[in-house]
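Hey, I was hoping to borrow your eyes for a little while. I've dropped the whole record in just underneath, so have a look:

——
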Amino acid sequence: MIRPLLMCFVFCVVSGSSKPTKKDRVHHDEPLSPLEHNDQESFDFDHEAFLGHDEAGAFTELSPEESKRRLGFIVEKIDADENDLVTEEELKAWIAHVQRKHIYDTVETHWKDFDKNGDGRVSWDEYRDFTYSHFLEDPKGASSDDARIIERDERRFKVADRNGDQLADKDELTAFLHPEEFGHMKDIVVQETIEDMDKNKDGFLSLDEYIGDVYSPELGEEEPEWVDQERSQFAEHRDQNKDGKLDQKEVLDWIFPDVDHVALEAQHLIHEADVDQDGKLTKEEILDSYSVFVGSQVTNFGEALRHDEF
């Protein structure tokens, strides 16, 4: 039960700590790999970015021939429009999918819990009945917050349902459960953030609302230095038009920093393999530069030799 367990965890952490702490609303992208990105040493970072950690490790056990053969199948998957060219957008979509594998795996694990009728889709009613059974069984014992959360989740579910058929496939349910990971869900995350913080319900975030979200002073407590730093952040960086409040665009820029690691990696891989410099990759170009994308026994042995030399 993903959502109930998560809500319980958050409640326990918050209620178990009486000391004010700095809340972080910013959605930080995880690095594509924990390895250092140093192509002069190896392409290990690129391998993990392109394949994921586990799959990248598996490729180092393959012969170069088998590594290329499997890479060829991957290229065919990446080429979504089947025009025999891999564009930056297609490469970005692939890397993003690989990087989200852990959340796709989580959804896969719980899929049968949601998809009660086994039709391969999850309706809002199926999700609601499973996740909020405690509320539905005893609505009188539930708080107004429970009803508000259900209403908000239904709104988010409709945004994730991109084809509007009122049913979520696995990609759509993943976007619903992890909206911060998907570009088309960012606006709803912004809306939910504003609703959480906007005490006077004017649709904007004032300085007091912004500070009140990260700091609640205790009686007689001296204000921490970081609180004043947050005021400066609000005035100097968050409030871009200097009107004393944050609108939706300013909240978007705040909680989703403008660094696209996936795009940077896609551009890097194209730069490494794009022989004719047309900004796209053929299957042949990718296979000719296979060691940039995937490892093999040879590349693994070569890296070991380089380390031995030092």
Notes: DSSP finds 18 helices and four strands in the chain. Residues 144 and 270 are 52 Å apart (CA to CA).
